[in-house]
Amino acid sequence: MDLNQYLEMFIEESKEHLQACSDNLLELEKNPDDLSLVNEIFRSAHTLKGMSATMGYEDLADLTHKMENVLDAIRNHKINVQTEVLDVVFESVDHLEEMIMDIANGGDGKRDVKDTVAKLKAIESGQPITVPSAVQTEQEIAVTVIEEPVQVSHMQYDDYEKTVLQQSSEQEYNAYEITVILREDCLLKAARVFMVFDILEKNGDVIKSVPSADQLEEEKFDQQFQVAFITMDSAEEIQKKIMKVSEIDKVIVTKLSQELFTTSATEVTQVDVPATVTAVPEVQVEQQVTVNSDSKQKTNTPSKVQAQQNASKTIRVSIERLDILMNLFEELVIDRGRLQSISTDVNHPELNETVERMSRTMGDLQNIVLTMRMVPVETVFNRFPKMVRSLSRDLHKKINLEIIGAETELDRTVIDEIGDPLVHLIRNSLDHGIESPEVRVAKGKPEEGTVILRAYHSGNYVFIEIEDDGAGINKEKVLAKAISRGIITKESANSLSDKQINELILASGFSTAEVISDISGRGVGLDVVKTTIESLGGSISIESTQDVGSIFSIQLPLTLSIISVMLVEIEEEIYAIPLSSIIETSIIKKSDILNAHNQKVIDFRGKVVPLIYLEEIFDVPRSNEFDDEYQSVVIVRKGEKLAGLVVDSFIGQQEIVLKSLGNYLTNIFAISGATILGNGKVALIVDCNALMK
């Protein structure tokens, strides 16, 4: 059987279970007496162990099993919840995450975890009360051979099956009837059946099963099933291997003699497993069951692997399929523009009505397609509680992380890119922002510092804020470092506002760290954060008050693929300016243009706004002199900065598909991409952020 078809599902579900383990471990550290949390962690670990064994990742399953032993001892009051114990369990979860990442990257999931396993065993055995057999490893389960035959109902065989059994016996193979009895509390029956069949098929051939393969897969049986099996192994060897599958109560192996295939049996062996307290896993896994013989194969159809953690009806769709859907929809948007252009030229009432109706329908479809790509920022935020716990211990600080608005949704493309910048900003807050407990107490603050990670929607943007109640930004220190690094001059330093001083820490190579550490202070990072965020069409701003705290605010677009723009014309060339950057459009008299510091400016609502002539920026050749006394200006904004983009005329507002310029046209100044218009022409998209630098 090819397990690769389940690999992607296995990886996704494993990540979910490990995330659940991390979240509940953090809660358990705060509430060590809450055994319900231990049960939740145990359930996640137990399910992960079963899934890993099913997929053949024995190292992963073995480590999870060792961790499961410690958790089982905790919930049975054999071990107390202590920081040292949780540290080792966290370490185990970290290893498991690395193993899953290795598998996701095409590896085999193997990792040297001897030290962690040794720690888990030491915890398990080093307590005043020894851990009973309820948490012993599978290898320690004793095999008990019962001398007296056990009465079991035997299977009936057709002529073909009898022939196979008889020929196998003549070739000195052992023919067995194996009865497997599952525990009463086993809910993963189909998964256990699959695991048993997987073991058997590696060691021989299955001739028949009762119930049938289809019934076993659909769990249409109680707690017991039988198989006819031929192998060179002994009954005891087969039993030991099957007993390694969890949630099995008994295994009865009956060796069939050649003349008694349907009537009697000898050498009956039974194994009893001590009843252990096993939590019922929340995830139900169903796998394919295959029945093989020497010359005949019965294989049922591949089944589903389902995660049913809640009652909602959901399906998993790969991001690649959503990308294909988005690309197809983008083509429709381009064709819609073309149809609208034709409709305007033809001016046919029925055509106009049809195009308008189609545009409304496509608008609804666009909302659905974009919504399908939206992912809660929780998928990124989930990694930070454990990271903050680890770093706070390394820094010898007491830090509490609060997460607000984790349900806020962003486009999957943005989610994939925003993780690393957030990691660096949080590390910066922990290292530079939050003071040590002694310093905080001296300042009259509580010993424990607070970092708030907040996300919320505002218009067509998502805002993510990292707020701390730490030392804030030391403006004198920042200015001194900026001057020494040549980022600013002493003369210009006096004219900088507080906001501009704060933003100096985003400059390339800037760092106020006196000691370089692995956490922050390597002179790189915040400039990369700024570059990454701006590449996503977003921006970052900083507010800080010394000894009160800082807020790093990130503004990100909801989606990157379909944007609203204002189309403008310069000579015969068409450019698109994103509406998200535009404050308003205006037509001004040339006589209203002023000069200040060799820069043409206008008075816009009491503010002096510099003008940027796009024909000069993009070197647009003039076919004739543009002599109109009026000029069209698009007022754009980046943060607090304003600028007026001078164009020939406005065409109108339109939704366009943002396309990359490709590898051959990288680093084109002030151009972020291109789009295909309804008339088939290409319009370049203006990067207002680059212009305003």
Biggest sheet architecture:
6 strands, mixed
| Overall pLDDT level | 78
Spans with pLDDT under 50 lasting ≥5 residues?
127-151, 262-312, 520-524
Question: Over all CA atoms, what is the radius of gyration?
Answer: 34 Å
CATH topology of the largest domain: Heat Shock Protein 90
Bin the strand percentage. Answer: 15-25%
Shape summary: flat
Structural domain tally: 5
Number of helices: 21
What is the strand tally? 25
Strand arrangement across the biggest beta sheet: 17-21-22-20-19-18
* Helix vs. strand class: alpha+beta
Specify the CATH homologous superfamily of the largest domain. Histidine kinase-like ATPase, C-terminal domain
Distance between the termini: 59 Å
Q: Please report the first level of CATH classification, the CATH class of the largest domain.
A: Alpha Beta
Tell me what the CATH architecture of the largest domain is: 2-Layer Sandwich
Summarize the amount of helix as a percent range.
Answer: 25-40%
How would the blueprint of this fold be written?
Layout: H1 7-30, H2 35-55, H3 58-75, H4 83-104, H5 114-125, H6 159-170, E1 174-182, H7 189-203, E2 204-210, H8 213-217, E3 224-231, H9 235-243, E4 248-255, E5 266-272, E6 290-292, E7 297-299, H10 319-346, H11 349-372, E8 374-376, H12 378-381, H13 384-395, E9 399-404, E10 409-411, H14 412-433, H15 437-442, E11 449-458, E12 461-468, H16 475-484, H17 490-493, H18 498-503, H19 526-535, E13 539-545, E14 549-557, E15 562-570, E16 573-578, E17 582-589, E18 594-596, E19 599-604, E20 607-613, H20 614-617, E21 630-638, E22 641-647, E23 649-657, E24 671-676, E25 682-686, H21 688-691
Parallel strand pairs: 9-11, 16-25, 20-22
Antiparallel strand pairs: 1-3, 1-4, 2-3, 4-5, 6-7, 8-10, 11-12, 12-14, 13-14, 15-16, 15-23, 17-21, 18-19, 19-20, 21-22, 24-25
Helix pairs in contact: 1-2, 1-4, 2-3, 2-7, 3-4, 3-5, 4-5, 10-11, 13-14, 14-19
